[in-house]
Specification:
- This protein has 2 helices and no strands.
- By secondary structure, the protein is mainly α.
- It is elongated, with a radius of gyration of 17 Å.
């Protein structure tokens, strides 16, 4: 079985689509996690 460039591009497009849908579906959770991570990173560099 040969893996073609088309197979790889469809796989990558599918993963990106899945990530986008997941972020949109759980926006509040992602926003909260991002802010917590940002604040922890700020504290680490001070």
């Amino acid at each position: 079985m040969k893996i073609t460039k088309r197979d790889v591009s469809v796989f990558i497009f599918g993963m990106l689509t899945w990530m986008a849908v997941e972020i949109i579906y759980d926006w509040e959770g992602h926003k909260k996690s991002f802010n917590e991570g940002y604040q922890q990173g700020e504290k680490a560099f001070k």
